[in-house]
Specification:
By secondary structure, the protein is of the alpha/beta class. The protein is built from nine helices and 13 strands. It has one domain: Ribonuclease Z/Hydroxyacylglutathione hydrolase-like (Metallo-beta-lactamase, Chain A). The longest helix has 8 residues. The relative contact order is 0.16. Bound molecules: D-malate, manganese (II) ion and zinc ion (ZN). The site of zinc ion has 7 residues, from α1.
Length: 306
Amino acid sequence: MLIRVLGSAAGGGFPQWNCNCPNCAGLRAGTLRALPRTQSSLCVTGEGGQDWALINASPDILEQIRATPALQPNRSLRDTGIAGVLLMDGQVDHSTGLYMLRERGRPLPLWCADPVHEDLTRGNPILKVLEHFCGVDRHVLPIDGSSFHVDGVAGVRFSALPLASKAAPYSPHREDPVPGDNIGLTMTCERSGRSLFYAPGLGAHSPEVDAAMRSADCVMVDGTFWTDDEMVALGVSQKTARSIGHLPQSGEGGMLEWLSSLPAGTRKVLIHINNTNPILDEDSPQRAKLTRHGIEVAYDGMEIAL
Ligand code: MLT
Ligand code: MN
Ligand code: ZN
């Protein structure tokens, strides 16, 4: 099984188009040692490696496909390596890339949980609009842990569990979360038995998520913010990390503490990094702290073979 990070940034990307925070300004000026990053997405393939499941459809998908020749095979006049799409939530940074796939010849196989399907047909009716183009072939993404496969992606078994986080801001139930608004996804290689747990929007610790992380060989989890008040302190927003469904890395009960409690052999990677997060600066003390704890920071193009 091969997992490739297409986009490692949170909504807005890095640098964000309208942002002059120290990170965004420093990256543009060339004074910061950091990599630019597109918005949150992965792809995964199994045996054969010709067809991939796309995990989240970012608004940067076209740029991500151009940067990933394997997603653009040439087996017929019109072709794609994307066999199907799985959504972790209905957030703008994870779903609006579906529009960019509208030229597909046949309906796009799409796996999403019921609350996400509801949001994408009502609050933000992308799936309704897509009916005027390729349409989607929707599959219910089970959130009870039962396993499923994506047609064309042989040798990869998927299973999901609900996370405590937040529905998208446009969702009619933004402040009234329901199971399935956000999910964590385990991808298991059926040949090696090795697995990766992915959760780009993880708002709180829970025994269920902890168990899923403990049984994975690699965890790739919410790295949005270093501190709860990061955006408030910078003056870019009034929103705290926790209020929008992201567990900050630092502090008591933070992600760093959680990851440090996992078995020693677990590979630990932060992903979905907001442009304000000091860990993007490779020379920052926060980044050094992660390195000391054996925690990696995902980057666009990162590949993990399991
Ligand atoms: C989030 O996960 O909270 C998002 O990155 C927000 C967004 O897409 O603007
Ligand atoms: Mn996001
Ligand atoms: Zn910024």
